[in-house]
Automatic annotation (TrEMBL):
The keyword Ribonucleoprotein does not apply. This is Methylglyoxal synthase. It comes from Rhizobium tibeticum. HAMAP family: Methylglyoxal_synth (MF_00549). The gene is mgsA. Keywords: Lyase.
Amino acid sequence: MAGGKCLALIAHDQKKDDMAEFARRNRETFANWKIVATGTTGGRVLEAAPDLDVTRLKSGPLGGDQQIGALIATGEVDALIFFVDPLTPMPHDVDVKALMRLAIVYDIPMALNEATADKLIATLHA
């Protein structure tokens, strides 16, 4: 992923509509970024904002969270927005925790809800 800044987008199932709307609302800002996203989330983002440069990885439970974690570890992701649904049990919860741990270890900005994502985008856009 040479050149430009890279933003990772992930959303749990109950938050995918919110992520798609968030991407649509911020498409002007996101137009300047390379976006990587887990499979279904990336598809929903592309439906909402087809002009964005989105690379879809595997679905989260099938390894997409780990793929994004690897991109964080190699310095290819500059920020992570992960709309987490804290009320629904996730069978791949250990993958989610590992991804968050990598974002913390590599000190990249990470937003886990829409309010924080709005603040993060405002600082990235400034």
